[in-house]
Amino acid sequence: TVKKPLAGRHVLVTSGPTHEAIDPVRYLANRSSGRQGHAVAAAAAEAGARVTLVSGPVAIPDPAGVTVVRVESAREMLAAVEAALPADLAIFAAAVGDWRPAETRAGKIKKDGSLPAPLQLVENPDILATIAGRSEGRPPLVVGFAAETDDVIGNARRKIARKGCDWIVANDVSAGGGVMGGTENTVHLVAREGGVGKDVETWPKLGKEEVGRRLVARFAELLA
Ligand code: C5P
């Protein structure tokens, strides 16, 4: 028999980049492929959970057995996440754009021989911090991801404190690693100080599918 350690649980996952519109044809984005987030969602479904995957624009297929909510911007992603709650486990793997244009132009900005006005940016909502900080309806287990280039563990610790989540899955995206957009990932699982479980686990380089399965197995243990 296949083990279904997340049977009866609702797992919420964010994945992919966000697109922040400048005008009807242009946007700010990043290089996230959505592979790691989608792999986590697929693994959670395999483990028996009901899964809601809130995904930014990606070019990869929907995972099997998962309800996918497609969004473009960070603000749409936050609204979709809030609409999907309550959840037993929330995993925020999306590469949410930190900033968006202060205004989205209704018409295409024309090339008319002079440069356009400089882009004014404003900060996007932090979805992970918003959900982890809820006094009511906070999922019992809230997990963030962190892409770091140096002091990976130290920065993960500070991120846990700043965002109020329980765990950070930290990956080293320093140049040459090929993590962002690639198919493999070397992750460190970092727990909140004084929280459940061991402080730091460093896993070998693994395919993103395998990372997804192992993460789901660990989180199922923590929820049990
Ligand atoms: O601060 P940083 O972007 O490195 O944090 C990464 C973590 O926070 C990821 O889990 C990401 O999904 C989440 N995040 C978010 N909303 C933002 C920025 C980051 O949910 N606006």
TrEMBL record:
Sequence segments annotated as region (Phosphopantothenate--cysteine ligase): 11-224
The reaction(s) this protein catalyses: N-[(R)-4-phosphopantothenoyl]-L-cysteine + H(+) = (R)-4'-phosphopantetheine + CO2; (R)-4'-phosphopantothenate + L-cysteine + CTP = N-[(R)-4-phosphopantothenoyl]-L-cysteine + CMP + diphosphate + H(+)
Alphabetical UniProt keywords: Decarboxylase, Flavoprotein, FMN, Ligase, Lyase, Magnesium, Metal-binding, Multifunctional enzyme
Keyword Transport listed: no
Domain DNA/pantothenate metabolism flavoprotein C-terminal: 6-221
EC nos: 4.1.1.36, 6.3.2.5
Free-text cofactor note: Binds 1 FMN per subunit.
Domain of life, per lineage: Bacteria
Annotated positions binding CTP: D98, K108, P125, D126, I127, L128, F145, K159, K163
GO molecular function: phosphopantothenate--cysteine ligase activity; phosphopantothenoylcysteine decarboxylase activity
Cofactor(s) needed: Mg(2+); FMN
Job description of the protein: Catalyzes two steps in the biosynthesis of coenzyme A. In the first step cysteine is conjugated to 4'-phosphopantothenate to form 4-phosphopantothenoylcysteine, in the latter compound is decarboxylated to form 4'-phosphopantotheine. Catalyzes two sequential steps in the biosynthesis of coenzyme A. In the first step cysteine is conjugated to 4'-phosphopantothenate to form 4-phosphopantothenoylcysteine. In the second step the latter compound is decarboxylated to form 4'-phosphopantotheine.
The name this protein goes by in its record: Coenzyme A biosynthesis bifunctional protein CoaBC
Organism: Methylorubrum podarium
